[in-house]
Write a structure and sequence with these properties.
299 residues; alpha/beta; 3 helices; 19 strands; Leu-rich_rpt; Receptor-like protein EIX2; receptor; LRR_dom_sf
């Protein structure tokens, strides 16, 4: 394990990590000031099960060579690790951020496989090669500048429990293959430019609107049925007519209020002298009463 998280380290992510620390299982550089690109040497860490580079200033694209991370590309997890003919059991613990929450994992650490690149400045498309990492339990690319479609290959990661692609610039539809993600219990694609109907599956329909807000989706589990361009169907059907009725009603109400107020109060005072005199006498009487009241209170 190599953990430098929550410090003030700066500069590029060291390329020598992939060369000199070839047996790494956990690499966490979370919450620092690292910048530059993700070095391709990271792809040489064949035993790596947990990669956390979140909350830095890392830019560039997500390396396609991530599919070389062998330990993430297998579903055969164990709490023992193999090196040659010898085995060792994970006897230490680590803090990992999974499903949006930081927890300490100990004896089960060897069963968890995660990748967190969130809150950086990564650009370009999500490489389809990510779909070969079928052992991933958690994948978080949120809070970047990623564009393009969500790769259909991510649906191959059938053991995935947590997937967060929110707050990017992704477009297109949620791939139909996401119906295969039967173990999802944390899912977020909010605040992108996604469109189309949400694929039908037990898991995807179990999340609330917050998982999809800021897009142009329609269909369950959204509370409103959205048309193909993201316009609610109840508005699309009644459309401009209902909106026009609301505007017309507003103008009519304003006009009636003006007429009633002017002709019911202002006009009689202006044209009828006796009303005008009585009105000002009443105001003078009220002002006198208030003056006496406040003077008495002051004494």
């Amino acid at each position: 394990m190599f953990d430098l998280s929550e410090n003030h380290f700066s500069g590029s992510v060291p390329a020598w990590i992939g060369d000199k620390l070839s047996n790494l299982v956990i690499l966490s550089l979370r919450s620092n000031n690292f910048d530059g690109h993700i070095p391709h040497n990271i792809c040489d860490l064949q035993f790596l099960q947990n990669l956390d580079l979140a909350h830095n200033n890392i830019s560039g694209v997500i390396p396609k060579c991530f599919n070389n991370l062998s330990a993430m590309a297998t579903t055969n997890k164990t709490d023992k690790k193999v090196y040659g003919d010898s085995f060792y059991r994970f006897s230490w613990s680590a803090l990992l951020v999974l499903k949006g929450r930081e927890d300490e994992y100990g004896s089960t650490l060897g069963l968890l496989t995660s990748m967190d690149l969130s809150a950086n400045s990564l650009t370009g498309e999500i490489p389809k090669e990510i779909g070969s990492l079928v052992g991933l339990v958690s994948l978080n690319f949120s809070g970047n500048l990623l564009t393009g479609n969500i790769p259909d290959s991510i649906g191959n990661i059938e053991l995935m429990e947590s997937l967060d692609l929110s707050m990017n610039r992704l477009n297109g539809e949620i791939p139909p293959s996401f119906s295969n993600l039967n173990f999802l219990n944390h899912f977020n694609v909010s605040y992108n430019n996604l469109t189309g109907q949400i694929p039908t599956s037990t898991q995807l329909q179990s999340f609330d609107n917050l998982s999809y807000v800021g897009n142009h989706h329609y269909g369950p589990p959204l509370t409103k049925n959205y048309a193909s361009k993201g316009i609610p169907t109840d508005v699309a059907n009644n459309g401009s007519s209902s909106e026009g009725n609301k505007v017309n009603s507003l103008y009519v109400s304003i006009a009636l209020g003006f007429v009633m107020g002017f002709w019911g109060v202002v006009a009689p005072l202006f044209f009828i002298r006796s009303w005008r005199i009585a009105y000002y006498r009443m105001l003078d009487h009220i002002c006198g009463k208030l003056y006496v009241f406040w003077a008495t209170m002051g004494m």
